[in-house]
Structure formats: structure tokens, C-alpha cells
## 1
Amino acid sequence: MIPEIGHFALVLALALGIMQGSVPFYGALRNDSLLMATAVPTAVAQFVFIAISFAALTMCYVGSDFSVVNVFENSHSLKPLIYKISGVWGNHEGSMLLWVLILALFGALVALFGGNLPITLRANVLAVQSWIAVAFMVFILATSNPFMRLAPAPGEGRDLNPLLQDPGLAIHPPLLYVGYVGLSISFSFAIAALIEGRIDAAWARWVRPWTLLAWIFLTLGISMGSYWAYYTLGWGGWWFWDPVENASFMPWLITTALLHSAVVMEKRNALKIWTILLAIMAFSLSLVGTFLVRSGVLTSVHAFATDPSRGVFILALLVLFIGGAFVLFAWRAPLLKQGGLFAPVSREGALVLNNLFLVTACMSVFVGTLYPLALEALTGEKISVGAPFFNATFGPLFLVLLLAVPFGPLLAWKRGDLPGVAQRLMAAAGVALAVMVGCYAVVQGGPVLAPLVVGIAVYVIIGAFTDLAERTGLFRMSPKAALARAAGLPRSAWGTMIAHLALGITLIGIVGETQFGTERIAEMKPGQSIEIGGYDIRFDGMATRPGPNYSDQIARFTVQRGGAVIGEIEPSKRTFPARSTTRTEAALMSRGFSQIYVSLGDPSPGGTIAVRAYHKPLVLLIWLGTIVMVLGGLLSLSDRRLRVGAPKPARSKPVMQPAE
Amino acid sequence: MAWLRRLLIILALLAAAPALAVQPDEIVTDPAKETRARELSRQLRCMVCQNQSIDDSDAPLARDLRILVRERLQAGDSNQQVLDFLVQRYGEFVLLNPRLRWQTALLWFAPPLLLIGGGLALFMLARRRAGGAPTNDAVTPQGGALTADEERRLARLMKSQDRS
């Protein structure tokens, strides 16, 4: 009964979606406020019905109802509860249902919190949002229905892919999807603006918080996925330039560009057409990502869904939405009035430069990801494009961009003073240079690139502090006054500074791991030790330990430094009988921001075991940086309340005005 | 259906207990050669895997290739010779870093072209907007350029707004 309720609720949501997609749109055409107003209740109701549908599927999983094909194929009665729940989106059908759930959630949020939007804009935005939902609900019902029954019901399920039975992967897809799908809002806003042929600074102010929210989740999702790969896949890599990773990274790059260009639009009423284009591109890349992952067009580590009929369907959706959006753009964008002049050397100019580099960086990822597919489709020739290509193209672009990052916030709007800003960044550059030279001296004979990149990272971090010092007048007035000014700075300014700072943190982590990491591969007997990164790791012996739906074969190691025992680590081989698969569970020990990473190979008959041990200096900074980046985003987002809605009365304390 | 076959192979490989990527017994005694072997391994694709280098992969084929790379190095090949040998045997598909040929020209040139093209477009746009091309400061402006009087008014406006 429960699966049928879920199925039926989804069909009802589809009907509501068709209504929401047409009635408010027609109302906006005829300027009929009654028809436009229907968008709000239908958006909320659509969300409620999809939520019922999703809850029904979740209940089937929790109750291990193996008469449902989807549950049978992806669940097991002995699986821990958290993986029964995460199994809902650990497969193609369920993950698409999660996709539309989040889509409808965003629609409902705009409906509920969009009270201050012009009524036609809200009607059009919700209508566009609904058409996306309708397309994907049709896709689910036609090709990927998770509520199909199986008769007779099998007694036990096939279990979820063991790689996916992991806390990291339980929360990674929802985070990423909130990011991916959240971009639909800026897309819908862009399309609505094109339909109306009108766009202004207020538009940017409405779009920016939604984009920022999506960006925050996208950042978290990518970071989480990277950390999952790092500790799960067993060889300690954290970014593989895998097409599926690229599929999430491309929207991130464009969304980052969009956030910056939306600032220009909001503050200076410029870059309107460009901002619209970025909003369309960001969500289009989300759709491309969904297509790449869901159609099985790539067979990569992540692609666990493969069925060509679905691929063709998604491709059709892709052409419809992306093609439609670009046609609409080409037709209507010339109607939008440009405004806001600025000199090339100005904050606006810096943000344009940022956009140029981010878009080019995204383009290099895009070309690298799709080129092999295109070449094979056109000529039948197969080539590979892997990490070396991306490092060679994306890397330099991003490093140059990072050099420009501290300049942006220090330049004034409209017309900036480049020599003046360069002078203010002298301190940052000086310290960076000193660090570079020091680093070079220490690692002499080592990698040449490493000191340079460390220098850039230090420069970015100190550059962010320079921005703060300038804004608060730290070195120009008393510490007390500076503190007062710091407290009075808008939160978005803090957000900018912290997010930029975070780039430097992540970069240091990347350099540390890639350039200064060490690795040992050895065959070990119990009692033997190996040395790695200044630590001695002694193999003590093997043991077995049963788990709920798996059994672990553990190897015990004692980690020592200078003869003193620091702790024990237990990497293991985990066997899942339901799918008769084994996966390697690496063991990680954190020392500050660095980690010792040990993973196991096969035991050999002689009682020895193959061991791969790594010392990864500062590796945790990679993900810490992304968390700090997210904090910056959250701070900026919390600033929204100060700016959206009625103008606030003038502040009483004049000290709070930052001097530019 | 090639992808399906590949997927089945991968699933079959996953089902077998995965070994480590680089096995202890593969390592050659000369550390310099071993370093070069690792470097090369990272540029070579494991052809039965999904986007993995032979350095990362657990597949038996990757192991064979790793051993082959080391054999070639032991035989005195240069890095380039090893790559050429593998390409001759397995095709361009084996290289993770595609070589520049006419088939890959667009791949390699698209990012720099976009950067240069975008930069040029912005430069032209800025020139047109500012109208301040050095040769064009006459009293009669062309196109969107401003007259000297307008420039002064603009400067005044900007100054007054800068303070707010």
C-alpha cells in the first residue's frame, strides 16, 4: 500500500506541476493577479506531494519491503538504519526522486519567502521552476519509477554497493543535490527576467542569496565527496578529475563567477546580460552533470546508473532546457538596458577579470571532460583526458586568478587606484616572497613548483588580512577604534575576506599533500616496522571482527615517534557477503593538520601482508579551507537580512561606515 | 554495448578481492628508475578501468602495464621511449595526457583561445565604453565616446559619489 501511495502522490505532484507551470504564466501575460497568485499554493502543494512520495519510498526502505524492485536491488534487511535511509538516494531512481524533491522544496521556499517579489516576477519564476520539475517527474514516471513492484517478493535484498555504505556518502549526495538543484532558482529568475524583458539591481539582490545558498551546499558537497574518495578508495587521492567530479566542479566555478558578477549588478547596475548568461550557464552545467552521471554515458567510478533509454530522455531534456534558454537569451537579452559605466581599473573591472578566468577555467574542465566523448562520437577514435591535462590547463589559470584575488576587494568601485593597491599589497607580497625563499632553502633539490605555490597561498592569506586591515584602519588609528570598525563592517565584507582567506588555506593543503607527501609500499611480517614521515609503524598482527552486514579482517599497527608510542591504527579489509565484495578500509591518524594513512593489500600465505603507508603533510587543510569558505558564504548570507526588504533606518553610530 | 561489457569487466574485477595498486614485488631496486616508473604510471591509463591511472588501479592489466613500464626502464629506455612503445601497442587511449595532434588541437587550444579572445573582447569593450582611445580625444566624439565637457561632468559625479 505504501509504494502505491508514493506513486500516486508523485502523479498528483506532476498534475499540480503542470498547473503551476501554465496558470501563473498565463496570468502574468494577461496581468491577472488572481491567476498569478495560484503559483504560491500550487508550489507548496507540489512540494508536499513530492515529500509524501519520497517519505513513502523511505518507509519502504526502512521497512525492507523487498516487493518493491528498487528496495530489493539496493537494500538488505541487516543493513544499519542510516544506510537503509541513504540507500534511498544511493541508486538512480531514488536519487532522481531526491532531485525533484529538492527542486520542489526550492520552489516552495520562493513561494513562501518571495512575498516581497513583484507579483509577475514571482509568477514567472515559479512557472519556470515548475516546468523543470514537470520534466523530471515525467522522466521518473516514464523511465525510472522507484515504486515498481515485484511478485513474488524475494525474501532478502541484494544490498547496497558496499562503497556507498559509508557515512560520507550518506550525506554527500543530498548536499550536492541541494547545490545543483538550488541553481535552478537563479536559472528560473534569469528566464523570468528574459520573459519580462526587464531586469534591475533588485533582481540581483533577490537572486544573490539563493545563488549563495546553492554555492554553499555545492562547496560542501564537493568537499565531502573529495574527503570520501580520499579515505574510501584506498590510495589517498582526493581529486581525480573524474568526469563525475568535474560535473560538480563546473557548476561550482560558474556559480562562483555568478556570485561575483551579481555583486556588480546589485551595487552598480552593470553586467546585467552577463549575469543572466552566467545564471543560465550555471544550471545548464548542473543539468549536463546530471546527464553525465545519470545516463551512463561515461563509465566512471561514480556512474552506478546505466541505461541508454534514460540517457536519450535526459539528453532531450537537456536540449529542451539549455537550448530553449539560450534561444530565449539570444532573442530577449538585447532588450535589456545596460547601465553603470566603470573604468577598466576598478572593483568592477577586477570582478570582470575574475569572471573571465573562472569561465575559462570552467571551459578547460568542460572541454577536457567532453572532448573524448565528442571525438569518439564523431571519429570513433578513443583518447583519454586525465589528470595531467587538467593540471596543465586548469592549474596555471587558477594560480594566475589567485594572484589577482587580493586586488579585487582593495580596488574602489568605478575607478580604482592600481598602484595604490599594489603598494598596500607590498607587505603581503614581501612576506610571501620571504616564505617562498625560505621554503626553497628548506626543500632544496625538491620540487621547484612547491615553494612558488606556497608563496602564492601565503600571499592570498595575507592579502585577505590586508583587506581587513584597510577596512578597519588597523594601522592608521587606535586598536580600539579599529575594533569598533571591525564590528561594524557589513557581514558580507567579512564573508568576502574569509572566503578569500580560505582559498589560501586550501592551496597550502594541496601543496603539502601533493609536493611534500611521502609513500612507502612494503611487504610486512608481524613485528616488522617501516618508517614514514618521521614515524615508525609496526605491524602487530591480524584479527577478525564481525560487523552488522559485513566482516572485517583487521591489521593492527602501532605508530611510534622517537621510540614513544603515539597510538594504534587498524586498517582492514571489509567483506560484504550479500554481494560477495571486499573493500579496503584505510586507517587514518591525524597529527595536527597532517595525516598518516595506511591501507592494506592482500595477505600472502607466509603470514605477511602488503602495506601501503603514506605521510600526508597538511592534507586536512584542503577540506578545512573549504569549510572556512563555507563559513564565509554563511556570513555573507546572514547579511542578506540587512539588505533585503524595507530600507533600514540610518545607523546611529557613524564610526561604522567603512571608508573607501 | 562496449560500455556494458566494460562495466561487467569492472564489476567482475571489483568482485574479486582488490589488491593494492603498486605491489611490493613490482618495485625495482634502483630508486631513480622507480621514481621515473611512478611518474610514468601516473600518465598512463588503465584501459579496463574507469578513468584510473595504472598507478592507482588494482586491475591485473594495470599491474601488467606497471611491470612492463619497469621492464622498459630497466632495458634503458627513456621516458619518451616508454610512452611511445605503449602508444604503439595500445593506441593513444593509453595516454592520460593526450598528445598534441590535429585531433586534439581544439582540446589543447580551446582554453587559451577563450582566455585571449575573452580578454580581447573585454579590452575592445572597455575602449568603446570609455571612448578614451588616445587618438580619439578630439572635441567631436565618435560613437559612444564622451565630449570633454561630459568627461568633466562624469569625473565630478564620480567624485561626489565616491564619498558616499
Note: Residues 167-404 of chain A form one domain.
## 2
Amino acid sequence: MTEIQTPHILWVRGGRMIDPSQDYDMPGDILLEDGAVLASGNPADIAAQAQAKKSAGAQIEEIILSADLCVAPGLIDAHTHLREPGFEIKETIYSGAKAAARGGYTTVCSMPNTSPVTDSRSVVAQIIAAAHNAAIRVLPIGAITRGQEGLQLTEMYELAEAGGIAFSDDGKPVRSGAMMSMALNYALPLYLPIINHCEDPDIVGGGVMNSGPAAIRLGLKGWPSSGEVIMLQRDLELVRGIGARYHAAHLSAAGSVEAVRRAKDAGLRVTAEVTPHHLLLTDEWVEGHAGGILAEYAQHARMPQFNTNAKVNPPLRSAKDAEAVLQGLLDGVIDIVATDHAPHGVTDKYCSFDEAAFGISGIETSLSMLLTLARLRNIPLKTMIAAASTKPAEVFQLARHTRLPIGTLRAGAAADVVIFNPNERYTVRAEEFLSLGKNTPLDGAELAGKVKMTIYGGAIVWEDAHFNRRPQA
Amino acid sequence: MTAATAIRHLLDVDEWSLNDIQHLLEIAETLRGWSDPAALRSLLRGAVVVTLFYENSTRTRVSFELAAKTLGADVVNISASASSVTKGETIRDTVNTLDALGANIIVMRHEHSGAPNTAARWSKSSIINAGDGWRAHPSQALLDLLTLQSIFGSVAGKKIVIAGDIVHSRVARSNIYTLTTAGAEVILCGPPTMLPKTFAAAYPDRKVSVTFSIEEALARADAVMALRIQKERMTGGALPSLREYRQYFGLTADRMQAYAHLPILHPGPMNEGVELDPEVAHGAQSYVEHQVANGPFVRMAILLWAARKDDALLNMVRLANTTGGAEA
């Protein structure tokens, strides 16, 4: 005999609700039912609705928070390297999703530099199939050109139909302006963004860290910020003519912020992202000195000279650049924060700096970095949540790709929630990462702000060991 | 092996104090004046010194090998061509293997800046940097300083010009540290493609300046160190021709007539007719052979320091002096 299952309802109550989509930042509760937000907001209203549900016979599980804990829409990462298929020693969709959940993320957009490259329907389908077993939602990004080789466009229409949400040759910039022009044009009917990793290969030519005093002292080849700005300006000029949707990945340089500012002032449909590491870290970290805003927090970080865990592309830049990209974010010139989570195995990093792979395993520290930055610079938490959740959903129009809206706690949205303590100071331990990539320059550093629980589709997918849920008596 | 004592690596001279430097040079001077080969051979007897060269070198490797053999060490030379890297053996594997085979000191040359730091992270042996990428060449800088001190007594207050491809030079970088620590002022000279005008700003607490005029540099100099100009720099666009470099930056016989008194140094190998003319390279003002001759003494001092036998040597000297022995 079949019986209608008693609806399972999760009542997250007592905390501070931050939902930029409703411009909400005050005490607030949420009710989650059937993978969706049933209601959110004023605690008295929510309590009334919960009582009504209870009277109707619903089972309600309560998560009672202390008032300083924050409840926000699950974070959305527009730039994640999950490495599967092809580089499962670095990360798998399964491990990357667990890591993301630990970082408070409930949706990640996976970059196409897999092996084979995510340039065909079958690879997109393979990623989506593997993601069924993952802790959180994975939305694949398809390549712009076959094999990311910059020579021939991918079958973008088919990639979009298979579930691709954007296009990028990430890591391998589209070198030819003619090819970029073709891609921007061809993608017009899809209304999906073309993402470029801006790096002029002729200028950068093998550079491994930011051009600057640290590179001079270390005798390492510089990767000047002009290499980013020049390709970005090329792209923006193409966009001006074509009217395409364009998104600039991981901007690192002050000049890039100015270029995007001018483009937006001119009304171009461009958006941009910045990573937590370009906001908080500087090229001195490569030299073994915790420069920049985190100096006090990183006193006990493991910081060797030639720190390969601080080797990333684009490189960590000067304090002036970090300040400029932060200002860009606060001004809305830079729309979102994306992690560029780039996990690597130990052999990729336990070698000379020139040989080491570019990339930081960043998804498990991202929110903590943003919360630390918010604390140090008196930035409203709502700004950070918007940059890491609400705005990524808008920029990539993710509601087109998900069953329910994400990046918001409005009634009817997906039951994707992150609960964090903005005041908890803790020490980052790379060995505790759930990502297979332990490559973080923050190992041993402190951060202020910790993810306590992550809920995806109404199910708890991460819970901090020290989290007291205070279940109902 | 005493577990409590840290391994002595020589990766760079950037953090060496004047005392550290003078201690090492004192040992080198002592060794130069020493005349009891048998006593020297006892100092590192039974120790295994490996020269691990990922990049070709003749003079540095031979200089270290002679130094090690003079001190009685067993020397193993390994030329690790770039192919062993592509075969997949990591620096970590290599140093672990050498440690397991009983190495005590690994003298390492590598084309990548910082590679000796990577080795030191995994090594139980002392890592001695014999030149890494563009970054450091400590033994060269120390022997350059020894040479300059034998000319001037002290380099304090002296203006030392380093001319050439500065940005790609590990010799220049290490000399900046040792010379300024010893009180000298360093004047860097070269075309801006080889010497970015921001270069000196990377050394804010040291007396380092940049000029693009060799005439101006020479007019101020107490000594000049010329660096090798590599031919491949032209294809990289840094130089239009060697001819033009010689004309505008070279220590030519003509140009040096007005500076015949000025000591000239060069770390070698020299491109005669490019950065300096043969008449200058082999003339009365050239100290190039002194540099080469100082090499083994400085490298012996480094090996003794790494093996913590530096004080043993000084004690031996004191003993010999008080008993009127070896140095008589």
C-alpha cells in the first residue's frame, strides 16, 4: 500500500538572513520544503507559517541558530576547474563538489579545460551525468574552439542544447582577434556569454609571476599586467561592434578595471569577475612575505620563498592592483567574485617555480576570504553575498538553466542555503581540504568567517564539526 | 649526525650579514695562505660531495670539484641534462636518491630560479647553490668580493659598476647583495631591454642605481664588472646586434684608455670583442684570472661552512700558529 509521504520541512531560524535579491539583512528565518524555499523573511511570519504546516501534520526539522550566524543563498561559482574527465588525480566532479559544499557553494560552473576538452555534446553529457552523484549543482561551460586550440569554433548551438551555460577557452586565451570576432558573432542567437581569459601570449610569453620588484629580486620572468589589459581592450572593441554578451574572467590589473569601466559607461554588454586571491593577496606572497591586506592574518602561514602555491594565472599582482580590483568590485565595475578553483596534485607544485602549474585550490577558502576582507575594510556582508551568489546568477542568467531560481532566498527559489559565522576566526589547514588539490598559499594562515552548514536542494551537504544545531527540545 | 643542528644550505646571499660574509672570506684567505695539503685533506675526509648540474658549466663545476678534492672529500659529478626532467624525475626524487646514497653536500646548478630552494626543502644534505636561473650565484659573488677586497682592502664606499645583461644575470643579483652589505655602492649599466629602469627600486634599502650610459658609469667607477652578453638575446629582441652593444656599452680598448687604472672583473666565460675587448680582458687592469684563482678557496670555505668544519679549520690554524707549525 502506498502512503503519501509526510512533507519534510526544514526551518532555519534565529539567525541573521542576508538576501541581496530582496535587499534583506536583518533577523530572518526560512522554511524549506521539497527542495524549494517555501517562505523566508520576518521570523514572526515564518513562525506562523511553520505552525500552520505543523497543524496540517507536517514534520518540521528545526535548525536553531544563534543570532550572529548568517543565512544566505547558496554561493555560485562561475569559474571552477573540476578536472574531470582527464585529470582525476587533481580533482573529480565528486571531490570538487564536496569541496564546494564545504566552501558554502551550491552551484559551480565547470571550466572546459578537461581531457578531452569540453568541446562536444558527449563531454558535456558526461559531466552532467557524473554531476548527478555530486553534492551540489554543476553547470558545464563549453569551449569556444575545438580542443581550445583557437582554430575552429565548437558546435556551440549543440553544446548549449546539451547544457552548456557559457563558452570559454579558459587558460588558453583566444589569441586571434578574428576568431574571437567569429565566436562573439556566432554565439549571438544563444544569448550565452563568451568568457575570455585575457592574456596576450606575445607579451606574457612564458612569464610566471607579476612583473615587479619581487620578480626582479627572485629572478623570475615577469607577466606584466599590460598582457591582460591589451587583450581585454581588443575584446571590448570587438564587443562594441558586435553587441555580444562578453564576460572577462579573473581580472587582476588596475588597467583592466579602467577598461571595463569605460566599456560599461559606453553601454556595452560586458561583465567581469575577480577572484578572492586577487583581492587579498599580492605578488610578495611568491617571495614568502604576506603582503597586502592579510599580513596580520598570515603571520603563521607556510610561506617559502618561491612559493609555488602562490603561482596562479593571472599572477598575484601589486597591492595597488589589489586595491583597484576591490574598488572595481565595490563600484560594480566588476560584477562578481569567482574562485578560479584550480586544484593540482603535489607533483605539480613540488618542483621549481618555473615548472610548477598555475592555480590555487580556492573554493574552500573563498567565502572566508571575502568575509575577512569585509571585516578589514568595513564592507557590508550583503555586498559580498551579492558578488558570490546573487549576481553570478544574474550575470549568467542561471534561472534559464535550473529548475528553480538560484542566488536568492525568495519563496519559490531552490532550497540552496549557506549558513556561516562571520566572526569565527580559524586557521586554514590544507590537509583538511576536501578538494584533492591542497595547493593553497593560505595553509597556516588565519581567516575570519567560517561556513557552518551548506544546504543544497533542501538537503544538508556540509556541516562543520563544531556547529551546534541546537535541535528542538 | 646531530639532529639538533639545522642543515646549512647556501641558497642565496640576500640574508647574509657582513659578519657572515667576512667569516667566510676569512676562511678563504686562511686557506689561500695554508701550506699543509695533508692537513687540508683531513677536513672533509669521508664526506661525499655531489655536483648536480642541470645546466652546462665548466669553471664553476671544476672549481667546486677541486675545492672538494683538496679537502679530501669524495666527489661525484652528475650532469643532469634537461632530458631527465622530461623523463619525469622530480628534483625531490633526485635529492632523496642522492641522500639515500650517502651524499653530504649537493652543489647544484639549475636553469630555473629557485630550484635549489625546492631541493633544500626535501634534502637531508646541504644544498649549495652554484647558480640558479637569473636569481643567485653566491659563490661567484663571494669570490668577486674577495678579489675586490684584495685590490681595495675594503670595498666600503667604493663604487662598483656592473655592466651588461643585468635582468638575466644571477651574478649581478648576488653581487648587489654582497657588495652593498660590504658597504659598496653598485651602479648598474646596460640598455633598458637588459636593465629595466625600475630595477633599482627592487632593492630599496641598498645603494643601487641604474644608468644607461657607460660613459657616466665609468666616470664614477672604482671598479667595473662586465657580464657576458648572450647571443640568443638578439633573437629575443633585447639587442639589435652585438656590434651595437660593443659600440655603446662595451669596455673597448679605445674607451678604456681614459680608465687604464680601473680594475676590470668578469665572471666568465667572456665574449671578447663584445662586452670587453681582448686587450682589456687580458691587459694589466684585468683581474679575471685572480677571480678564477680565488674560486677554489672561496668554494672550499663554502664546503667547510656547510659541513660545519669552518671553526675546525680556524682552530687548526691557531694551533699551527702557536706551535710554529705549518705556516712557517
Note: Chain A has one domain: 74-407.
